[in-house]
Fold each of these.
Amino acid sequence: DAGITQSPRHKVTETGTPVTLRCHQTENHRYMYWYRQDPGHGLRLIHYSYGVKDTDKGEVSDGYSVSRSKTEDFLLTLESATSSQTSVYFCAISELGQGRLDEQYFGPGTRLTVT
Amino acid sequence: KQEVTQIPAALSVPEGENLVLNCSFTDSAIYNLQWFRQDPGKGLTSLLLIQSSQREQTSGRLNASLDKSSGRSTLYIAASQPGDSATYLCAVRTGNQFYFGTGTSLTVIP
C-alpha cells in the first residue's frame, strides 16, 4: 500500500471554528490532492498541489484553503467551518509520467462533522 | 467541464457470473483512466490504470478496456465472488485534474 496517512481520522467541530486536516505521504510523489465525498456527488476535487508551494483550485474550492511547505505534507484548512462542509475528506497522491507512477493512491479518509 | 457517468448505479448478481461495469466521459482529451474499488467506510483502492494510448489492461479476473474516441470504458469481472461486493468507481485524468463517476454498487450473492 502507498504510504499515505491522514489526521485526524474523525473530527466533530462547531460551525464557525477553523479546522485543519493533514495529509502525509512517504512516497515522494509530486502531486497531492484533496477531495470530498458526499452521497449523490461522488468524489469532487477541492484543491491540488503539483509541488512545494504550488497549488491550484479544484471544482469545489470555495471555503477551503491549502498549503504545502514540504513535499510530504499537504494541509487542508476550513477557515470557518459550515454544516455544508460535513463530509468525508480524502487525500490522494500521484506522479505524472509513464507506467504505474501515473496511478492515484488514496489515504484512508477523514470523517468531518460540523454541528 | 469533464462529466463522468457510470451505469448502472447498482447491480446484483449471483456468484460465478461474469459482469461488465460501464464508464462514460464527455471529453475524449484524457491522459488516462483509472478504476477503483471502495468498500463501505473505507478509502479507494486502485484496480487498473489505462493510459490514453492503451486499449486495455488486465489484472487477474479483471479486464478494463478503453475506447477514447467514443468516451467509454468497461470493467469486466470474471467469475464474480462475494468478496467482489463493493462500489466501483472510474476516474479520468484531464490535465492535472481527476474527474470521478458516482460509482456502481456491486453485490455478489452467494
Amino acid sequence: DGGITQSPKYLFRKEGQNVTLSCEQNLNHDAMYWYRQDPGQGLRLIYYSQIVNDFQKGDIAEGYSVSREKKESFPLTVTSAQKNPTAFYLCASRPGTTFNEQYFGPGTRLTVT
Amino acid sequence: AQSVTQLDSQVPVFEEAPVELRCNYSSSVSVYLFWYVQYPNQGLQLLLKYLSGSTLVKGINGFEAEFNKSQTSFHLRKPSVHISDTAEYFCAVSGPLIYNQGGKLIFGQGTELSVKP
C-alpha cells in the first residue's frame, strides 16, 4: 500500500532534549511538508521541501530543523530552542504536478514535560 | 497573500439533519480550494477540491461544496449527517504554482462538527 508513515504515534520527552520525528512516503512525491497543529489554531507550516537536498522555512520554523537526503524521507527535529514543543505534528506530501493537493500522514503527538 | 476564515468553530447538529460548514477566503490570484476531514488523533483526509470548472464539487461521504467567486466562499454541505461524520473539518486555499512555488496550503482554524443522536 502506498502512503505516508509517521513514527512513533506518541512521543514523550523531557524538556531540554532534542527529538526527531520520522516521516516516510512511498508515493514517489516530490514535495514534503511538516505542520504543527494546536487546538483552535488550525495547521501551521514549519518547513517544506520540494526536492532532495533542498528545503525552506515555513511560518513557524524557529526551534525546528529538517533534512531531505532521500526523496522518501523528511525527518523533523524539535530542538531544545523550541519554547512550546508539545503539539500534534503532521507530515504531508504532494506530487510534482500543477495541482496542490497534499496527502497527510497519521501524525505524531509529542509531549514535552 | 491568501487567507482562510472558517466562520464557525463548533457546529452541533442532530443525526439526519442537514449541515453547512462555512468557509471564506481572500486571495489576489486565482485559487484552488480544499476541504479536509480529521478524525480524533488522526491525519487529514481530503473530502473534496475545487481546481476549476463546475462550481459545485462533490466529494466523498456524501459531502459537496460550492465555489462562489463573487462572495469568496467555499461552503461545505451535507443533506443528512450521520454520527460517523463527527470530526473536525478544515478548509484550505492554495494557488497555481507560478504564484505559490512551494505548493503551500493555507488552512482555516477548523470547524468541529458534532452529530448527536
